[in-house]
Write a structure and sequence with these properties.
Length: 216
């Protein structure tokens, strides 16, 4: 696969407008309004493994969502709402599909496994996972229920893998899903568009960072 930088600071406003238009084509009915007061912010796998340019798993557009994620973190902290990071840590069990499919792994305790240092993890929970979904084999659902969370706002990487799978699982567990189109990223715009179209049609609302931090 040939990776691409499809989101930049210069084209972000244009891309967001285009993506919102695409999402609205998928479903005109709005099932629910977003409400930060009953939400948790999920930040999936923003680790050095995916953000270090020298690594084969590098996501070229990921560096251009950092500022938006940081704005969302600040906004959620001001509203005294939960912020939960995930770190993907592989088990290396040869019989597991994640190991069979990808062959390489992210190991706990390594620099590659750590959250990218430009993101503020203070006052946030960090949850370890070893599947695409942040709900699979974790206690995320219990955490959200305990905090009386009704909506999950999804950010991070990669759009078409961990972000989309987590969104689908959240929907199936009756959480209202808010997918933030300019705070998620993957290898190509085609893959990103596929995700936001699917989410918009069947699983949640796709909106921009600006809409949330300005609550409009």
């Amino acid at each position: 696969m040939e990776k691409e930088i499809y989101l930049t600071k210069e084209n972000q406003e244009e891309k967001v407008s285009q993506w919102i238009t695409e999402c609205r084509k998928m479903k005109k009915y709005i099932a629910f309004d977003f409400d930060v007061s009953k939400a948790a912010l999920l930040i999936l796998d923003m680790q050095n493994f995916f953000l270090n340019e020298s690594n084969h798993a590098y996501v070229p557009s990921a560096s251009n969502i950092i500022d938006n994620i940081s704005r969302l973190i600040e906004h959620f902290h001001k509203k005294e709402r939960p912020v939960i990071f995930t770190k993907h840590i592989d088990t290396e069990k040869p019989e597991e599909m994640m190991t069979k499919w990808w062959r390489d792994s992210i190991q706990q305790g390594t620099k590659e496994a750590e959250i990218f240092p430009l993101l503020n993890t203070d006052e946030s929970e960090i949850l370890l996972k070893n599947r695409y979904s942040a709900f699979e084999k974790t206690n995320l659902e219990e955490i959200l229920r305990y905090k009386n969370v009704k909506q999950v706002f999804i950010t991070g990487i990669m759009s078409h893998l961990c972000c989309e799978t987590t969104a689908r699982d959240a929907f199936m567990k009756d959480f209202e899903v808010i997918y933030i189109i300019d705070a998620t990223a993957t290898y190509t715009e085609e893959l990103h568009l596929g995700t936001i179209r699917a989410i918009s049609h069947g699983f949640g609302r796709c909106i921009s960072t600006e809409e949330i931090v300005n609550e409009r």
